Amino acid sequence: MKVIYPGTFDPPTYGHLDIIERLSVMFDEVVVALLINGNKNPIFTLDERIEMIKSDLDDHNIENVTIKTFDGLMANFAKKENSRVIARGLRGMADYEYEKNIARVNEALYDGLETIYLLSNPDYSFISSSMVKEVASFKGDISAFVSDDVECKLKKKFNY
């Protein structure tokens, strides 16, 4: 069975990697789907984000994961991928309230499309890409939140 784990991953964090690792044990194939969204202004290019995720996957020897990109509706991408399962990580209730509405829309657009939720590991439940970028912008220590490769790339982006 194939699962899709969509997101912007700007940058990928240990929280993202934890979800990917757990999904790779639960499913035959995991598609990490990077959204190309004109409404967001990522600090990393699509290629940079793909490279960081690949590096993290290689460092953890996760082999049943492919990285793909998509624009438009998640439901259409899931149809194209012939997958009926989307996975999302939840850090808390606010995430759930947001995600359940998206899941309902996706299911309305693609009958039978299910969204499953994995609770964040408590060690990572406070980490978000936005928070990591903010700490990095003030030259704070981000080593507990992202891999060495991602940390180096963030330091380069923020000139430290």
From TrEMBL:
Residues that, per the record, bind ATP: 8-9, 16, 89-91, 99, 124-130
Assigned keywords, A-Z: ATP-binding, Coenzyme A biosynthesis, Cytoplasm, Magnesium, Nucleotide-binding, Nucleotidyltransferase, Transferase
Domain Cytidyltransferase-like, residue spans: 4-134
Signal sequence bounds: none
Record keyword Lyase present: no
Compartment(s): Cytoplasm
Site (Transition state stabilizer): 16
Superkingdom in the source lineage: Bacteria
Main location: cytoplasm
Pathway membership, UniProt: Cofactor biosynthesis; coenzyme A biosynthesis; CoA from (R)-pantothenate: step 4/5
SUPFAM superfamilies on file: Nucleotidylyl transferase
Sequence positions that bind substrate: 8, 40, 74, 88
Keyword Iron-sulfur: no
Family statement drawn from the similarity comment of this UniProt entry: Belongs to the bacterial CoaD family.
NCBIfam families in alphabetical order: coaD_prev_kdtB, cyt_tran_rel
Oligomer and partners: Homohexamer.
Function according to Swiss-Prot or TrEMBL: Reversibly transfers an adenylyl group from ATP to 4'-phosphopantetheine, yielding dephospho-CoA (dPCoA) and pyrophosphate.
This protein's name: Phosphopantetheine adenylyltransferase
Organism: Anaerococcus cruorum
Gene: coaD
